[in-house]
Structures are given as C-alpha cells and as structure tokens.
Amino acid sequence: MVEARSISPILSVRGLCKSFGAVTASRDVSLELAPGEIHALIGPNGAGKSTLIQQISGALTPDSGSVLLDGQDVTRLDVVQRARAGLARTFQISSLNMDDTVLQNVMLGALGRRGGRLPVFRPVMRDGALLAASAAALGEVGLTEVRAVRTAELSHGQRRQLEVAVALTLQPKVFLMDEPMAGLGVEGSQRLTGFLDGLRRRAPILLVEHDMDAVFALADRISVLVYGHIIATGTPDEIRNDPAVREAYLGEEMLP
Fold first, then answer.
1. Which of 27, 206, 211, 226 could form a disulfide with 181 if both were Cys (CB 3.0 to 4.6 A apart)?
2. Do residues 141 and 165 touch, judged by C-beta distance below 8 A?
3. Range(s) for CATH 3.40.50.300 in the chain?
4. Phi, psi angles (nearest 5°) of residue 217
5. How far apart are CA 143 and CA 59, in angstroms?
6. Interstrand relation of 174-178 and 205-208 (parallel, antiparallel or unpaired)
C-alpha cells in the first residue's frame, strides 16, 4: 500500500461530464492515481464505470472536463495517441487472437497498439527489437514457458496475464483494468490478485472490478460511482464503513 495523497498523481481526471441525450453517464467526475497505487473504481451495475473508463482511455470524448497523464493534458488525444503516451488498457472481454501463439499475440498486439500498419507476418517475427521486447514482457508476467502455445489453450487467468504482457511492451505509465477478475473462479481470482499486487511496482493501476474481495485486498483507495457521480473516495476501511456507500450497494452486493 502507498500513501497516495502525499504523492503527485500520474493520472488526474478532472470534472468529466458525459451525456447521451437525456441520460447523464458521467457527472463532474474527478479522481487521481498516484505512482505505485491501485485505485479501485466500484459501483452498481449501470453506474457509468465503463463510460468513464472509455473517456479516460480516449474511446469516448467527454462533453467537458480533462484527463492529465503525467502532467500532460491528453483530453483531445485518441486511443492510440494515449497508448503511445503511456496509458495501457486491458479489457473486460479479451481482445486476444485465440488462434495465434502467446508470443505472436504480444508482438502483433504491440504493433497494433502503437498505431502502425501491420506488415507481412513473417518479417514481423524476425524483428529482433520487437522480439526482445515481447520476450521481456512475457518474462515479467511469467508466461515465458508457454510462449509457443496457442492462446486458446491458456487458462482464463493466463489470458489476463497475456493482455498485461501486450500492454507492457508500451512501457506504460498507467494501467486501466476493466474487470480483470471476470470469469475467474475463487482460485483464479486469488492468483490474479497476487499478480496485480506485484504489478503496481511496474505502473499504477486504475481498477474497475466487481469482485469485492479482490478490491479490498488490493486497493489503496476506492472511489464509488453511482448514477455517473462519485459519492465517496477513501481508504478501504473508510469506504467499508461509509453509510452512503452501503446504501448504494443495498440489494446489489454487500461490501466485505
């Protein structure tokens, strides 16, 4: 755990607002992520978490507000430009190619996220610099031994680690993680929790997650989003004991 509030933020979200017709999906949302921190974003279904992550990643343009990455205003940058700046996103639904090997996914995924055109496949696999970077990323997430395995043969948890390996080739300043525990059983969630706890040393994590056991085990701070508005931000103990947070979760899921 880090004392996030005493450190300058690496990611700063300021007053984001987003509406779709009469529906307000984000209402004056502000949060910060400090180096070494895991900041969890939680909320009931339909609270606006995915819309917020899309605005931070560049997939959606906010109506107002700003996103700063390491002091740079990236609000008007698109997804690829933000990725190049160091904002790495992993998805709730895997974007990996199941027919490719683990190594191929990392190499081609890295090329695609850099925004370049994908060249003929065989020359890509002979690119020494790209191969070295991809192999190093696989080593960091513990997948070196399965580099030649088809991605379809990996466990669900290993696929999550592979997504992180792809992101690592961008030398990220921040990870945005959208429900990485989705589809995992208890054992898989515990294993991935341990992995993410170590990953914070590589880059801080903004974590959107429904698995409350994982959230309270990992997070330095938690922000609670309800109807597009953050109703509370605090330490796990502060959030656990906040009456407004408990009321918001009544009938949805109780906090541990």
1. 211
2. yes
3. 1-86+172-256
4. -80, -30
5. 29
6. parallel
Given this model, what pLDDT does residue 251 score? 45
Q: What's the CA gap between 15 and 80, in Å, rounded?
A: 23
Distance CA 80, CA 130 (A): 18
Assess contact for 34 and 204: CB atoms under 8 A: yes
Instruction: Note the pLDDT tens digit of each residue in 31-54.
Output: 999 999 999 999 988 889 999 999
* DSSP code string of 202-237: TS-EEEE-S-HHHHHHH-SEEEEEETTEEEEEE-HH
Quick: pLDDT tens for 186-217. 887 888 888 889 889 989 999 998 888 899 99
Q: Which long-range contacts (CB under 8 A, 24 or more apart) does 178-187 make?
A: 178/50, 178/53, 178/89, 178/90, 178/91, 178/92, 178/208, 179/92, 179/208, 179/209, 179/210, 180/90, 180/207, 180/209, 181/209, 181/210, 181/211, 181/214, 182/92, 182/210, 183/156, 184/156, 184/157, 184/160
pLDDT of residue 4: 45
**Cβ neighbour number for residue 11 with a 10 Å cutoff:** 25
Overall residue count recorded for the chain in this entry: 256
Exposed e or buried b per residue across 144-159, where buried means at least 16 C-beta atoms within 10 angstroms of its C-beta: eebbeeebeebeebbb
Q: Is-contact 133 169, C-beta < 8 A?
A: yes
Place of tokens 């959208």: 178
Residue 19: its pLDDT value, please? 95
Between strands 11-20 and 72-73, the pairing is unpaired
**Domain 1-86+172-256: assigned CATH number:** 3.40.50.300
